[in-house]
Amino acid sequence: MGIQYLERDRPSSLAIEVLVGGRGCLGCVQDVPTAYWRAYGVEGFDGVWYTLHGPLLPWKVNTATHTYGKQTFCSFTKGWAGFCSGNELKLGNTVVFTQVGPVEFQVKKV
Q1: Which member of 24, 33, 80, 104 has the lowest number of beta carbons within 10 Å of its beta carbon?
Q2: Helix count and strand count (H, E) for the chain
């Protein structure tokens, strides 16, 4: 897994491996890679709703940030499980997110 940079300073694309969420269900929460959200700022992932245009269906997904000590995490939260189900994503699939608008990503399975 790795981040695919299309622009040197502010990447517009990233690759994410679909993981099992904290409660053991597929896709309950999906972390956003640190290098990606740092390029845009943590505020862009704190309670912001994104439209993800998936391989099969578009879906609204919320984001959240969590800080533990000195470490911060940004995640897709509410709506992520539905996005995975509606787009037939399975554990271990890799998807590439390409930002197509301020709060929109095109998502393709690779």
Answers
A1: 24
A2: 2, 7
Mean per-residue pLDDT of the chain: 80
Domains of the chain in sequence order:
13-109 (2.40.330.10)
Residue among 106, 105, 110 nearest 45 (CA): 105
What is the rounded distance in angstroms from the CA atom of residue 38 to the CA atom of residue 79?
23
- Sheet holding 94-101: strands in order across? 13-17, 94-101, 104-109, 49-53, 58-68, 71-76, 30-32
Q: Alpha-carbon distance 108 to 106, whole Å?
A: 7
H or E stretch at 84: helix 80-86
User: Could you tell me which of 77, 106, 109 has the C-alpha nearest to residue 6?
Assistant: 106
Tell me the whole-structure pTM to 2 decimals.
0.78
